């Protein structure tokens, strides 16, 4: 990668910085690389413990943060001392996964001590060349990732060695203050993303808990939690009795188009995101249809996934359209969560739900008033989840744009 005249500046940068960026060998910015690949507790004559120092591996170093719950292993003081051998990780140092997956980056969050484990290395920067925060985001920029990919080896599981990294070139600002500002900007973005992700996860867990208590458990006819003044038992009914079902029928493939003026085609889970139909493929041929606010149920792998449509759509054979109220929609969400459809698909070569099984599926329903109360209550939670998801998506889009435009 050579630095052309046109590539001396990023597309956007902070005010007050006008110096050209320079191309360097990656290791010109690195004081030390800490690499214990291949080291295991067994090779040290020890074993993992139930608690102690968290081991950082390629599975829990995520894109910008450490997930302590993913593939969590711990070492006691003896293992920590023998493993790290005086090369302890310090707060702010940049962690980089070398394979499976290659290219995930995070920073050591504190000085409480960690074991540097499988497929993960740590960089200590030269303080007069680069800041930790800048290195952390530089390695996550698309330009850097693309070059790392070109230097990697292996088939499906790409990997990069220290030898490969010696051929890795980066283009960076020479002014450490500019590096610091860029690093701080992305750190704030990452913190905002983490905050919204945390709120979103809590809301989803809250929704999951309500789905468990607002509907009867298996072989029961009343839920654990009810709204005031409702005490009658729920009735068991077939889905086909209480909702209008339409099994999809795929149009001829020659009629598929990319023309957004044609009819939106929904074929399966790929056409839904966050519980909503997202137009992806269009068709000139109308077979079976669903109207705005109808429920869309995936009848092929993954069978039982549920969404709604805001559009008039053509239904492919991978889905069914259901005209039902909000309670029916929430019931179908719960059925998917508890594995209800597994009994219809187990043993079949291709996971699918047929028309008869869908119509005959037994569900419990309360009075219309209670259905309304439950449906509206859960819908409000869904709307709040959608709002947080939208904010999170916008932050990811903003970060992606900055990563593209603020690096060379």
From TrEMBL:
It comes from the Bacteria. GO terms for molecular function: DNA binding; endonuclease activity. One of its GO terms (biological process) is DNA restriction-modification system. Residues 36-204, 231-395 form the Type I restriction modification DNA specificity domain. Keywords: DNA-binding, Endonuclease, Hydrolase, Nuclease, Restriction system. Belongs to the type-I restriction system S methylase family. This is Restriction endonuclease subunit S.
């Amino acid at each position: 990668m050579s630095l052309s005249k046109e590539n001396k500046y990023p597309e956007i940068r902070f005010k007050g910085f006008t110096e050209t960026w320079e191309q360097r060998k990656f290791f010109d910015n690195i004081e030390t690389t800490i690499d214990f690949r291949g080291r295991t507790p067994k090779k040290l004559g020890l074993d993992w413990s139930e608690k102690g120092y968290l081991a950082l591996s390629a599975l829990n170093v995520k894109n910008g943060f450490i997930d302590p719950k993913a593939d969590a292993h711990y070492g006691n003081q003896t293992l920590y001392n023998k493993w790290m051998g005086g090369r302890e990780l310090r707060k702010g140092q940049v962690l980089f996964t070398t394979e499976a997956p290659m290219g995930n980056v995070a920073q050591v969050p504190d000085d409480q001590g960690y074991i540097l484990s499988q497929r993960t290395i740590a960089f200590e920067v030269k303080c007069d060349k680069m800041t930790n925060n800048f290195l952390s985001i530089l390695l996550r920029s698309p330009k850097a990732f693309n070059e790392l990919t070109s230097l990697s080896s292996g088939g499906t599981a790409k990997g990069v060695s220290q030898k490969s990294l010696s051929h890795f070139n980066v283009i960076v600002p020479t002014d450490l203050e500019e590096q610091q500002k860029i690093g701080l900007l992305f750190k704030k973005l990452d913190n905002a993303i983490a905050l919204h992700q945390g709120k979103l996860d809590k809301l989803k867990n809250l929704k999951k808990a309500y789905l468990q208590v607002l509907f009867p458990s298996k072989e029961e006819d009343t839920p654990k939690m009810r709204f005031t003044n409702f005490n009658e038992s729920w009735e068991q009914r077939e889905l086909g009795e209480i909702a209008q079902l339409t099994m999809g029928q795929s149009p001829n493939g020659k009629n598929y188009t990319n023309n957004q003026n044609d009819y939106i085609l929904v074929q399966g889970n790929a056409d839904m995101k966050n519980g909503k139909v997202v137009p992806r493929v269009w068709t000139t041929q109308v077979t079976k249809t669903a109207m705005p606010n109808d429920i869309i149920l995936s009848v092929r792998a993954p069978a039982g996934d549920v969404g709604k449509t805001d559009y008039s759509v053509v239904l492919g054979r991978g889905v069914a359209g259901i005209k039902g109220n909000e309670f029916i929609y929430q019931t179908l969400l719960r059925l998917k969560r508890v594995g209800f459809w597994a009994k219809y698909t187990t043993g079949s070569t291709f996971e699918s739900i047929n028309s008869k099984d869908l119509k005959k599926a037994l569900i419990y329903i309360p009075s219309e008033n209670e259905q309304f109360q439950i449906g509206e209550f859960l819908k409000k939670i869904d709307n709040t989840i959608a709002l947080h998801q939208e904010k999170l998506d916008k932050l990811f889009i903003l970060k992606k744009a900055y990563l593209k435009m603020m690096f060379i």
